[in-house]
Every structure is written in C-alpha cells, then in structure tokens.
Amino acid sequence: MNTPLTLFGNHPCTARIALIGAGGTGSELLSHLLRLHQALISLQQPGLDVTVYDADQVSESNLVRQRFSTPDLGQNKAITLVRRINLAGNVSWRARPQHYTGEFLQADIVISCVDSRSTRAELHGAARQQRWWWLDCGNDHTTGQVILGRAGVLPLATELHPELMDTALPDDGPSCSTMEALQRQDLFVNAHVAAHAADLLWNFIHTDKGIQHHARYFSLQNHTLSARSIPV
How many whole angstroms from its chain centre is CA 161? Predict the structure, then answer.
C-alpha cells in the first residue's frame, strides 16, 4: 500500500487556499470549503484561510448553474460569494476581483476552476516555480476530473494532460443564455466536480487520513455514474 500524503504531516497549520474561478465549479466548491473549515475547527484543528479570484460579473446565464440569484446580476462574482460566505460562516476570507495572470500567490494550495487554457498555462508555470500544491478542477458536458499535483512530488494536471494548457486549442466562450450554458455543461456536473475536489481536500488536510489517490475522473454519460482514480 502506498504511503498516504498529507498537507502538513503531524504539525497542522492553517491552510492558505487560493481559489481561482468562482463560476460553476468554484461557486459550489466555496460552500464546501466553508464546511471543511468548520469541520476542522470543530476537531480543534487550524481551519482554512481562503482568497477567491474572479474578474467576471454575474450574468443572466449564470443563474441556474452557478450559486447566484437575480439580485446578484451585474455584481462581481468573487466579491458577491465571499461577502455571503463571510456572513454565513463568521470568517474573514478575501475576494480579488481579477483574473489570475501569473502573479506570486501566498498559498499552500491553489485550486483552479477555470475553462481557459491560457490561465492554466500561467498556473502551470507558476506551480513549477512557486511549488504550491495545485488542485485543478475541470469538466465538459458530462465528465469531469480533479487532479492534485505538486512540482517534483506528484504530476501536475497539465503534465498528465498537456491539452489543458494548449492555447492552440479553442476555449469555450461565455454562454449567452441559460439554454446554451446547459447544452455545454449538464446541470449537476459542476456539483460533482466540487464534491470530489472537497472530499480529496478533506482527506489531504485532515491529518488522520491523508490521500492515497491524487486524481479522480468521473462520467455521467448515459445517466450512469462511473469513476476511477490514480494512486499516489
């Protein structure tokens, strides 16, 4: 059996997390991060310190698949979600209304919930230099994956799947309507990605368990759930 990996070993500290992207997956995952934080605190362990990055404003097409409602229209996604989380959880997490463009991140774990190949290319370069743990979350219409890596320790998502940062390939542009958004990504596929990411993080940060698998893949095709994982 492989030796489980944990974030801080036997000396837990507050985990600094940078969440890049607050859309379909990111908005779901942020709620899970609050629950994870509260669970750690209840176990008398250090919690989470989260910073959310997203420059986009809430649009009409976001209202069904993302955790926004009509009063949020026109507001910045990161600011809206973090304000709500801070009130609900009595935390002081931060919002950065900007896209990630390669700057230095003071983080132990960077979580990317983006659909931009250029952003993943920026994160790939930064991850190799700054050597934080990188949890990349991705999906298409009915499939998804979460991959935790660290340069020199575990393969990065972009090393396992170079096409994720191949800027010669097209990105999905923003959806103009709810119908178009649902044609591109099924209604609950982001929720599945977020749940897998949160569960992997929980085992990674919660020092009693650790992780023995660092990548998970799932499919919801043909109304059937199938999944597989890659061991550490």
Answer: 17
Burial of 41 (0-12, 13-18, 19+ CB in 10 A): middle
Q: For residue 44, what are the contacts with CB-CB under 8 A and spacing of at least 6? A: none
pTM here is 0.92
Calpha distance 58→80 (Å, rounded): 9
Of 34, 211, 26, 209, nearest in space to 133 by CA: 211
Pick from 9, 32, 6: which is nearest to 19 by CA? 32
Q: Distance between CA 108 and CA 143 in Å, rounded?
A: 28
d(CA 11, CA 5): 13
DSSP H or E segment with residue 27: helix 24-42
Place of tokens 């597989």: 228
- How does pLDDT run across 143-201, given as a tens digit for each residue? 999 999 999 999 999 999 999 999 988 877 565 555 455 556 778 899 999 999 999 99
Bridge-based pairing state of the strands 109-112 and 213-219: unpaired
The whole-angstrom separation of Cα 109 and Cα 129 is 14
DSSP codes of every residue in 54-112: --PBP-GGGTTTSS--GGGTTSBHHHHHHHHHHHHHT---EEE-S---S-----SEEEE
Query: What is the distance between the alpha carbons of residues 228 and 101, in angstroms, rounded to a whole number?
Result: 32
